[in-house]
């Protein structure tokens, strides 16, 4: 029997695990190898494009979270022929913004969105590289909703379910789509 190609398994093989970074005990999941190899990058983008090109799943706009969400989100928006909006760290956007502050393990962070980035009723796909605690994606969802948009789904390459973010986001009403999950080490 021929071996069936699994995009998820293929992509998992190209995610580098860096032990003890940025702190002892952390297993950092590095997606840069996915971007370096043109075939791997294409397989990854196509996995998302195929999901979101159907009429029922097609967004009006893609929003990417600073900074690796820009890479995936911009290419995805281009392939879907929809607009792209960046959700940036505070102080990086030049026009009028709305902002949302969220808690980190130690302290807090703030993200911003231009006040004219989306229109009320827009169906938005919210994209990041990885879901850990879910704080950044939750802040992005709240920002988009402040402007009247409907966040139809959150998408990421990697989910780290043991950190609770994906469960927290789903509990807040955000459907999620991820390509690879890493449980434990």
Automatic annotation (TrEMBL):
Major subcellular location class: cytoplasm
Glycosyltransferase listed as a keyword: yes
Subcellular location as annotated: Cytoplasm
Domain Phosphoribosyltransferase intervals: 34-161
InterPro entries: Ade_phspho_trans, PRTase-like, PRTase_dom, UPRTase/APRTase
Pfam family, one: Pribosyltran
Top-level taxon of the source organism: Bacteria
EC category name: transferase
Catalytic activity: AMP + diphosphate = 5-phospho-alpha-D-ribose 1-diphosphate + adenine
Alphabetized UniProt keyword annotations: Cytoplasm, Glycosyltransferase, Purine salvage, Transferase
EC number: 2.4.2.7
Pathway note: Purine metabolism; AMP biosynthesis via salvage pathway; AMP from adenine: step 1/1
GO molecular function: glycosyltransferase activity
PANTHER family: ADENINE PHOSPHORIBOSYLTRANSFERASE (PTHR32315:SF3)
General function of this protein: Catalyzes a salvage reaction resulting in the formation of AMP, that is energically less costly than de novo synthesis.
Record protein name field: Adenine phosphoribosyltransferase
Organism: Comamonas faecalis
